[in-house]
Amino acid sequence: MSLFPRAFLHQDQSSSPTIFRLLDEIDQYSRGVDRNTHQITKSFTPKFDVKELGDSFELHGELSGIDQKDVDIEFTDASTLTVKGRIERSYAKGNPPAGKEDNNVSVKKSEDSKTSREKFWVMERSIGEFSRSFTFPVPVNQESVKASMKDGILSVMIPKSKKQENRKISIQ
């Protein structure tokens, strides 16, 4: 089953806008796309799982398509961990799909057509900046935190601080 009906790909976009073009315009507007550069100006919120074990916490976040060098993990206070970063992709405005030629202009088939830009019909992947903060209910050992990224999943292991024993202070 195709995402787009066959008739949709062969309609003349210049004579009558289709519902798909209208929906794409609404989507671009709602996501803050600059029509000239197709850059996303809004942020997004990646999904995380937070798990508490006996002696630690584990965070697992979906960050597909981002390089680990573009992710920063830091403690903003004694019990709050912040994960932030940026995903960039460039979407260039391109030519209409194959079979879409303007009847008023003669089309010259040459090597130039091989280098023509692609046209994106749907842009659903997250783009922009993100920031997530996690506050832990118990003290954590900031010095022993470990993080790794594999297959687009960021994993952060945060050990809990060992309980401090009561210490009696003698009066002199």
Structure commentary:
- The protein has 172 residues and is mostly beta strands.
- It has a single domain (6-95, 118-159), classed as Immunoglobulin-like (Sandwich).
- It has helices spanning 6-9, 19-30; strands at residues 48-52, 56-62, 71-77, 80-87, 128-135, 146-150, 153-159.
- The strands form two sheets. The protein has a four-stranded antiparallel sheet, with no helix packed on it. A three-stranded antiparallel sheet has the order 3-4-5, with no helix packed on it.
- β3 and β4 form a beta hairpin.
- It starts with 5 loop residues before the first helix and ends in a 13-residue tail after the last strand.
- The model is unreliable at 4-11 and 100-108 (pLDDT under 50).
- Residues 39-172 form the SHSP domain.
- Residues 99-111 have a biased composition (Basic and acidic residues).
- Belongs to the small heat shock protein (HSP20) family.
- Number of structural units classed as domains: 1
**pLDDT averaged over residues:** 76
The termini sit apart by: 84 Å
Strand elements, count: 7
Structural class by helix and strand composition: mainly beta
Q: Which architecture name does CATH use? A: Sandwich
Helix and strand pattern: HHEEEEEEE
Instruction: Give start-end ranges of low-pLDDT stretches.
Output: 4-11, 100-108
Biggest sheet architecture: 4 strands, antiparallel
CATH-derived topology: Immunoglobulin-like
Rg:
25 Å
Oligomeric description of these chains: single chain
> What's the CATH class, please?
Mainly Beta
Shape: elongated
| Number of helices, counting only DSSP H or I runs of 4 residues or more | 2
Helix share, percent: under 10%
Pfam family, one: HSP20
Family: Belongs to the small heat shock protein (HSP20) family.
Domain SHSP: 39-172
Biased composition (Basic and acidic residues): 99-111
